[in-house]
Design a protein that fits this description.
- By secondary structure, this protein is α/β, with parallel strands linked by helices.
- Helices cover about 35% and strands about 25% of the residues.
- The strands form 3 sheets. Strands 8, 9, 10, 11, 12, 13, 14, 15 and 16 form a 9-stranded mixed β-sheet that branches.
- Helix 4 packs across helix 5.
Length: about 425
């Protein structure tokens, strides 16, 4: 795959400043770690398990003696799948709590509500969610996978397996719109074509008309970037129409909300996805992590996926940087993160690319069978090559923006 380098357009969000209640209370002799996630509402299929993994990370940090002789206090905010609450909580965490770091956001919209506020307060922000790439912010460390790390792996694998014609469906906001363009670009790069691209608001539950269109278009496969609890309806309706056996699905999002546990084996068998982590990753760190999750949550423990594991690993990576710096000072911790520090977590070794503040990480490609993802291919130490096109924090260390666009041609990468 080849890339050329040009600018994306920069975007920002307006912020509200009112504060709201939190779960938990801080102690004056502790270090404050703030988490802002959707624990209720349509995105809680992601947020509740991410919160559980975050809680385990704080337990593990404190069990090992804390940081700098202090315990770490977790302040957990529920954004209730409401962007306004994200803006409120980010200000509360930075100005009210004086948090040493904030970890949170699930959708790109929630990230963009948090990010500018935390940059202004210089409160270190970790976004631990796989996303569309393009954040270039001195204050924001992105540990989730980006398209060049995962989408670039699943598209050629699916096309080699199924054929050249793709039908793309995606959530109708930044993530879905941009990911759809990446999928289309990788499909064309493999000599294929996108026969259609459709977008859906997060609250859409009726996919009958689209399934009819897919039947008429007769693609070789469907690429899905659907998001949230409502969109799980697509997979059920698709399977009920007998489509999984006729036109298979590859996805950039399926499984990170444990959707494969919400539908039957028959409804999901054969689906392909690529992330930085599946439960089947084999290493001692993952075995120990899963055992601790079992001990803490028992039969209420969710199946672990990239979002949950990165919530844990993002917290642990920050803690290792604090230890290395000997301080929670923003500049010192940032320098430690960019120093080549490696954290060996459940997904494998993670290090921060100092050019982009994004993770260099392993990637695994999985095929769904009987509600479990079986790893069919692995890729070590994948760089965030997409964001490296537009972001150079070495040359411009005070940048705080999100590069995005409405067409890959405008970015010079088509």
């Amino acid at each position: 795959m080849t890339f050329s380098r040009r600018s994306f357009l920069a975007g920002s969000s307006a912020l509200a400043l009112s504060a709201v209640p939190v779960i938990g209370r801080a102690q004056s002799d502790s270090i404050i770690f703030a988490s802002i996630l959707d624990l209720s509402g349509g995105l809680d299929i992601y947020g509740t398990a991410m919160a559980d993994a975050t809680a385990l990370a704080i337990d593990d940090i404190n069990a090992a003696g804390g940081l700098m002789g202090k315990q770490v206090t977790l302040k957990m905010y529920d954004a209730q799948s409401n962007i306004q609450f994200y803006t409120q909580y980010a200000t509360q965490a930075a100005a009210g709590d004086r948090a040493a770091t904030v970890h949170g956001g699930i959708t790109s919209a929630s990230r963009e509500a948090i990010r500018p506020t935390l940059a202004r307060f210089k409160t270190m922000y970790f976004y631990n969610t796989q996303y569309e790439g393009g954040v270039c912010d001195f204050n924001n460390f992105c540990t989730g996978s980006t398209p060049a790390q995962t989408v670039a792996k699943v598209v050629p694998y699916a096309m080699n397996k199924w054929g050249k014609k793709a039908y793309i469906i995606a959530a109708d906001y930044n993530y879905g719109q941009i990911i759809a363009q990446w999928v289309e670009r990788f499909v064309k790069e493999q000599g294929g074509e996108a026969v259609a691209v459709e977008f859906f608001p997060l609250d859409v539950t009726n996919f009958g008309p689209t399934i009819n269109k897919i039947q008429q278009a007769k693609p070789d496969m469907v690429f899905s970037a659907l998001v949230g609890g409502a969109h799980v309806s697509f997979y059920r309706q698709y399977a009920a129409a007998g489509m999984m056996k006729e036109i298979p699905i590859a996805s950039t999002t399926f499984g990170i909300g444990n959707e494969h546990k919400l539908i039957s084996a028959e409804e999901g068998n054969g689906l392909l996805a690529a992330y930085s982590y599946f439960e089947g990753v084999q290493n001692p760190e993952n075995a120990a992590f899963l055992a601790r999750m079992d001990a803490k949550f028992g039969d209420k423990r969710a199946t672990m996926n990239e979002l949950t594991v990165r919530s844990y690993e993002g917290a642990m990576l920050w803690a290792e940087a604090v230890k290395l710096a000997g301080s929670t000072d923003h500049a010192a911790v940032s320098a430690a993160l960019k120093s080549g520090l490696v954290y060996n977590g459940p997904s494998g070794p993670i290090t921060i690319d100092p050019q982009t503040n994004h993770a260099i990480q392993n990637v695994v490609l999985g095929e769904l069978k009987d509600q479990e993802f079986n790893i069919v291919e692995s890729f070590a130490a994948q760089p965030p090559a997409d964001t490296q096109l537009v972001c150079d924090l070495k040359a411009n260390p005070t940048l705080s923006t999100f590069y995005f666009e409405n067409g890959l041609a405008a970015a010079g990468i088509k």
